[in-house]
Amino acid sequence: MPAKLKFKLIYCSSEDPEFPSSELNAHSPHTVGWQSARFCDYPQELGFQFGANVRLSQLQILSHQFKIATKLELFIGSTADGDKPSYHKAKFKRLGYLSLDSNERSSWQARELKSVQVDAFGRFVKVLVHKNHINKLNMYSQVGIIAVNVIGDAAPAPPGAHPMLGAPVGGADPHAGGDGAAHRPPGKKDVSPLDDITFDLNFDAATAKQIRELHVAKDRAVKAEDYDAAKRLKDAIDRLKQVGARMAKLELRKKAAVESEDYDTAKQIKAEIDRLRSAVAYG
């Protein structure tokens, strides 16, 4: 079953020192994302590498709320068999593009999430980020991406497989489904909510890990037809999600207090976070 794939950002055209491209390597409530340099040239390029050849099923990209690209082009790449993996020497196949809304209707408050279903094999993903939408808040003509998530299988392509097997990402109807998602290739399974980009953005790493472990235990209980245990685990997951969401908000408040050097407030918030974490009953 397709699952969340680990990757590493290995190339970017430019970056704002306060919002470096390394921000895209991990997801958490504290993620601030990547932003291009001020008054940069377009398109900007982001390059991602996987630990091995993978089969991509879904790409998710969360845009900045006002530093918004007009278009994102997506590519899958790989090197020849036997060659050392190299992003700059890889051959890329264009998968298509995604168009982003100017976000004026939300007064540049909401972040647009693009999710697209693909079916492609490779070792690298390249994203070309085109020029920004113009608005009064984006004074330096930058673009920004908060987070990137990739769903797929860590499996090599079968012999003779085409680098792209599914429908193109964009073109005929880049806004299909109302949220810019391309049509799902036939036979694709839904992605687990635990692998969705929003999951890790809403919970700290420790809470996310605990929730995933409880889900695994609940699935085992269901398979064993131990429904009492399954219900207890489900209740524990629900409690942990509620507490985890509150802890994530408190962590953001604590971070803001530290940045403003209000250490008394930061200490109080930390104590509340510790109290919530220790009070959670896991079973």
Automatic annotation (TrEMBL):
One matching Pfam family: CEP104_N
Domain Centrosomal protein CEP104 N-terminal: 33-152
InterPro entries (UniProt xref): CEP104-like, CEP104_N, Galactose-bd-like_sf
Top-rank lineage group of the source organism: Eukaryota
GO CC terms of this entry: cilium
Name of the featured protein: Centrosomal protein CEP104 N-terminal domain-containing protein
Classification of source organism: Eukaryota, Cryptophyceae, Cryptomonadales, Hemiselmidaceae, Hemiselmis
